[in-house]
């Protein structure tokens, strides 16, 4: 049975209301896309948060109606041995935007402040060095003309537990549940302390963190898109009027007959 309210008692957003508002916001994202291309803007959007906080769904809501050549999503796997020997941020910088692009990082260099630190995948020295240099590195990024936007999706304890349990039961979502995800449940407060320290050091005036409450996924997506649109001033770009041309019949032939005998996919629907 669908839940009528979240753990704080806030009524769940109805699907029809959500879909109507999402469609409106996605139209605005298309206008933003035109503006970014027209003005040659460079934007980075970082998505971080607890496991099962809804990062993937939020990114999908942002990108499903826009061009993947403008809104590029970067979700890097674990680093290779070669990448481990590089400057830490190097593997991320090669994906930074050129003019007219918005790059969305589904997890980012902040892996070092979260999972790598909590799970022991980096040394204490590497962790402290990351916190020391990241504000300076991000200031350099911003000073080059890139707009850096950082979102942290925060899901509550009970809701995270419910989402993990749902993944166990649903074969369409079991792939989302990894041993590391399960370990994050046990280490809830370790992740909380890592989050608090990260925000303390890297929440700066030039690259602030914006926290999105995500117990209600629908509200979280709409709130996040609305805020994203508010952070990048844009205007409508006038498009030239387009007319669909007719076919040139100069070299006309029966181009359907030539397909006879070819292998067609069975039409079962």
Mind explaining what this structure looks like?
By secondary structure, this protein is an alpha/beta fold. 43% of the residues lie in helices and 12% in strands. It has a domain at 15-154 and 188-233: Rossmann fold (3-Layer(aba) Sandwich), CATH 3.40.50. Helix 1 (15-39) packs parallel to helix 10 and helix 2 (55-63) packs across helix 10. The chain has helices at residues 15-39, 55-63, 81-84, 90-93, 115-118, 124-143, 157-169, 179-186, 188-202, 217-231; strands spanning 42-49, 71-74, 101-106, 147-154, 209-213. The mean pLDDT is 94. The protein is built from 10 helices and 5 strands. The chain has a 5-stranded parallel sheet, with helices on both faces. The two termini are 31 Å apart.
Q: Could you tell me the strand content as a percent range?
A: 5-15%
Helix and strand content put the structural class at: alpha/beta
Radius of gyration: 22 Å
| Order of strands in the sheet with most strands | 2-3-1-4-5
CATH architecture of the domain at 15-154 and 188-233: 3-Layer(aba) Sandwich
Q: Would you tell me which CATH topology of the domain at 15-154 and 188-233 applies?
A: Rossmann fold
Q: What is the terminal-to-terminal distance?
A: 31 Å
Brief synopsis:
Helix content is 43%, strand content 12%.
């Amino acid at each position: 049975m669908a839940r009528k309210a979240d753990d704080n008692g806030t009524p769940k957003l109805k699907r029809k209301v959500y879909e109507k508002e999402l469609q409106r916001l996605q139209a605005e994202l298309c206008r933003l896309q035109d503006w970014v291309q027209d003005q040659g803007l460079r934007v980075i959007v970082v998505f971080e948060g607890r496991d099962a906080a809804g990062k993937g769904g939020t990114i999908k809501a942002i990108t499903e109606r826009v061009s993947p050549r403008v809104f590029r999503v970067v979700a890097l796997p674990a680093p290779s041995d070669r990448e481990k020997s590089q400057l830490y941020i190097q593997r991320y910088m090669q994906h930074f935007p050129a003019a007219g692009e918005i790059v969305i990082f589904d997890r980012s260099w902040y892996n070092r402040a979260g999972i790598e630190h909590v799970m022991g995948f980096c040394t204490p020295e590497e962790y402290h060095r990351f916190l020391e240099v990241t504000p300076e590195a991000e200031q350099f990024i911003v000073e080059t003309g890139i707009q850096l936007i950082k979102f942290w999706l925060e899901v509550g304890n009970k809701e995270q537990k419910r989402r993990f349990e749902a993944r166990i039961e649903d074969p369409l979502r079991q792939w989302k549940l990894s041993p590391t995800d399960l370990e994050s449940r046990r280490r809830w407060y370790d992740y909380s302390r890592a989050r608090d320290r990260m925000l303390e050091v890297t929440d700066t005036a030039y690259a602030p963190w914006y926290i999105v409450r995500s117990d209600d996924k629908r509200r979280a997506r709409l709130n996040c898109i609305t805020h994203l649109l508010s952070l990048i001033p844009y205007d409508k770009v006038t498009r030239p009027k387009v007319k669909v041309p007719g076919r040139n019949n100069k070299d006309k032939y029966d181009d359907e007959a030539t397909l006879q005998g070819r292998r067609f996919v069975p039409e079962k629907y």
